[in-house]
Write a structure and sequence with these properties.
By secondary structure, this protein is mainly alpha-helical. It is about 35% helix and about 5% strand. It has three domains: about 45 residues, no CATH class; about 55 residues; about 60 residues, no CATH class. The longest helix is centred in the N-terminal third of the chain and has 24 residues. About 5% of the residues are buried. The structure holds heme C (4 copies).
């Protein structure tokens, strides 16, 4: 017995560690984890109960048919209204306007998709915004690039010039 004491001690520590690990796991793992796979099953219902904020590609058409038709006829056909403005729910509830829809007039909006970057697909129309504006002598001598500048030549909803 004298000679195996250290083994018993190590064994007791090992059992203690395993029990602690099991207890911690029991306390930390959410109740519905594993019901239907390696995730918390209750999160499905939680996501399904979130309010819907986006209306989708045609949700603006009933009230803004003019902008809708302009956009559908041009190269921005695949860019949904909510990408450049904001989710429908910020603006409309129960079929009526509830608040102003954000309108971003900064060149930065266009730059998200069109500023020249080596990482973009080559067939994406891209410009170096500063060079593009310089070519038309439209960079102010001082101060920021003015709001709405891209819209002076391009119709933001149908930007092609050809
Ligand atoms: C590529 C970005 C972009 C997309 C996509 C877009 N808009 Fe706009 N929209 C703008 C910008 C920028 C302005 C502000 C133009 C200005 O006055 O300088 C604007 C202005 C507007 C206005 C204010 C009136 C006007 O025509 O100036 C309305 C209404 C509007 N958009 C509705 C829509 C609807 C509806 C859609 C989808 C069919 C849409 N927009 C898609 C960028 C966009
Ligand atoms: C139930 C009708 C309705 C729907 C749907 C609707 N709007 Fe509007 N919107 C209005 C009204 C009313 C105005 C104010 C008058 C106007 O400019 O025509 C307005 C104005 C705007 C404006 C100008 C800024 C402002 O708030 O006055 C923008 C931009 C706009 N809407 C974008 C959108 C976009 C993008 C969608 C779709 C995601 C959308 N709207 C869906 C009714 C609607
Ligand atoms: C969310 C991304 C996105 C934003 C923001 C965006 N665009 Fe575009 N734009 C596109 C796509 C996609 C195309 C079509 C590319 C294609 O045809 O392959 C396009 C096409 C264009 C073209 C080429 C037109 C043609 O017919 O040759 C111009 C010019 C343009 N956009 C200007 C603008 C301007 C100005 C703004 C800001 C008001 C803007 N874009 C904002 C995605 C975007
Ligand atoms: C003074 C008028 C003018 C202004 C302002 C202007 N553009 Fe242009 N843009 C043009 C013309 C003209 C073309 C077509 C000829 C060319 O490719 O240079 C063009 C072409 C483009 C193209 C397509 C390039 C291609 O490969 O097909 C994009 C994208 C573009 N512009 C984005 C913008 C953005 C973003 C802004 C705002 C920062 C802007 N433009 C401001 C006149 C303008």
């Amino acid at each position: 017995m004298e000679h195996t004491k250290h083994l018993w001690r190590a064994g007791a520590i090992a059992i203690f560690l395993v029990l602690t690990a099991l207890l911690v796991r029991h306390l930390l793992v959410p109740e519905s984890f594993g019901v239907d796979g390696f995730y918390r099953y209750d999160s499905l219902a939680e996501f399904m109960n979130k309010p819907v904020v986006h209306g989708g590609a045609t949700s603006c058409e009933p009230c803004h048919s003019e902008q809708f038709e302009t956009k559908m006829a041009g190269s921005h056909v695949s860019v949904t209204c909510e990408v450049c403005h904001a989710p429908l729910a910020q603006h409309v509830a129960d079929g009526a306007k509830t608040a102003d829809m954000p309108v971003m007039r900064s060149h930065r909006l266009c730059g998200w998709c069109h500023q020249k970057l080596v990482s973009r697909p080559e067939d994406m129309p891209q410009v170096d915004i500063i060079e593009h504006l310089e070519a038309f002598e439209m960079i102010p001598e001082e101060g920021d690039i003015p709001e709405g500048i891209c819209g002076e030549c391009h119709d933001v909803h149908d930007p092609g010039l050809g």
